[in-house]
Amino acid sequence: MRGIAGAAPESGAAGKEAAPPNSGAACRAGGGGGGGGSARESVAACCAGGGGGSVRECVAPGESAGSLQPSTPGKPTELAVPGEPAEDLLLVAPGESVEDLQCGGLRIIQSKGEFRFGIDAVLLANFAKARKGASVVELCSGSGVISILMTAKTGASAFTGVEIQSGLADMANRSAALNGLSGKVTFVNADLRDCRELFKKGSADVVVANPPYIKRRSGIKSRSAGMSIARHEICCTLDDVLAAASHLLRDGGDLFMTQRPGRLADVCCSARAFGVEPKYIQMVQSKPDSPPVLILVHARKAVRPDLKFMPPLYLA
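RESULT FIELD:
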């Protein structure tokens, strides 16, 4: 938890309004998951990466605990992956692959058996902004792709990801090592609902979150426990995410997150309840004449209300 846990808050101008984030994905991800990674594919098929997995409080009455066991780390072994240096192969476990993020030479490890990031994560990494020297916490960090991409897109000095599924947290740390970022990017296997015990209040300048989109008892759950945990509010709710963000952020600190358009009211109401004011919202549409399939939200802690809508982002 470099640069975050137990650290004093970073200093910075909180009162002056920052310019809205730039639109458009500058760096595309190769081989994204949840339905793709190309910016030309619909975000509608992409689900949130990240949320996830301890069984201690994640099973509702009538649900089977055995069907929601969190993923566990695979044992890295040397694999015959064409084009990969021998030393990098030691970071790759059976069933995993190394994929090019097409952004500054960054790569990421992904598993066929885990939730794979989608275009929503790439868009959020491009939407989020952090000043030079900032401390960033990523909630529901999943594969770690957002923090890893942000190392090339921002001047932030320290990133800490919080991921409840142990297998994903382990894989994300190996991806950081693969890119030579272990001293800058760290992923913690923890429940974001325990942030008050894990992190000092106000210790983050920026929080990013790509949380589960689907309410617990809505939609069709995957047969894969990890997939269900990442897509559904099984182990954390939207309120849990915003409560954690509020605790982590210093006054004037920024939250960047994604959600489905149908939950826009939920995001605004919950954010304000936890003292994090929505400032900018950008709708993501497949094309100009289609309804939005995703929203990107920029909120700020302890500031006056003043919500602005940015021009929509078109994927086609």
